[in-house]
Specification:
This protein has about 350 residues and is of the alpha+beta class. The chain folds into two domains: about 220 residues, 3-Layer(aba) Sandwich (Beta-lactamase), CATH 3.40.710; about 110 residues, no CATH class. About 35% of the residues lie in helices and about 15% in strands. The strands form three sheets. It has a seven-stranded antiparallel sheet with strand order 3-2-1-12-11-10-9, sandwiched between helices. α1 packs antiparallel against α12 and α2 packs across α6. Keywords: Hydrolase. GO terms for molecular function: hydrolase activity. This is Beta-lactamase. InterPro entries: Beta-lactam-related, Beta-lactam/transpept-like, Diverse_Enzym_Activities. It comes from Streptomyces caelestis.
Amino acid sequence: MTYDRDRIEALLDEGVRDKVYPGAVWALGDATGILAQGTTGILDPDEPDVPMRTDTVFDAASLTKILAVWSSIGALWEHGTLDLDQPLASFWQEVTGHPLGSVTARQLLTHTAGVPLRAQLKNLYGTNPDDIRRGVLHEPLHRSPGEAVEYTDRAALILGYLAEHLADQPLDQLATARTWHPLGMTGTRFGPLPAGLAARCAPTELDQNTDTHLKGVAHDFSARLLGGVCGIAGVFTVLDDLATFLRYMLGPAASHVRAGFGSEWITRSLTIETGELQPARGLFWHPAPGTTTEEDVWVHYGFTGTGMWISPTGGRWAVLLTNKLYYTRDRAPLTDIRNGFRELAFR
């Protein structure tokens, strides 16, 4: 498998010129490490002399679902603590007697559980974290489990609660202990970030309350409502840590470090688990748009402008981190760049 560095740089430079994002950081590699990496643009348009750097901290947004929830659920599954196909009510007292009790962890991981499609936590349940948790775990289903594939933040929020229940520790501590610390991911953590780290953070959307762009505080409203830590979003990370994470995913058996999850969880997750239902899904990961089953390229995105890809068959991974949300919520311009980047990184 090859790649085209010159065309990758030209593509990402164009994104800066077109104001798709202020700047971007990227890398691609294999099980041995990073093969190529680069940066373009600036950290913050308010400080035009400060360039984007490879150690820039990014609001990972929904990459939290992979870095914290998927990895922790995988660790619990490999340890024998969780059966993916057992109804939640059979081992989780909080959901016994409620609609969510009939759902399985596998259905949540494939976005086929039928849980509500929108978070709306404050509108529905107020601002108290205990009230929110109770409301989310006791709410009616949107549709019957297994009926349709519908991406929803609620799945990750519920799985985060489940992981905390099974491990008897908060999600941030669980992810740190089972994944981030063992892999040496020292630049990955839930926010809000301390001032020193926040200064290195790529700013996201304008906060109407302060008239400043969010920096070191999660963009996702649900994460902020829940104190920064939840299954939906809230993690901040750096390029090198994502490279380490994906490198491990390509070769856990050969790795000199060991996370709580290993090759069996990775293989199951990067396999279509939704049968004939569309769009196809693995366990939280999904096939990259525009790719074939033979190409075996999987992806997960983050709303702030982040994304990571992996191909076990091709032995390749790639990361593209941007703060596109600084300018707009319009997904189309970055979608084109993401797809172009993937094509050039997995040739």
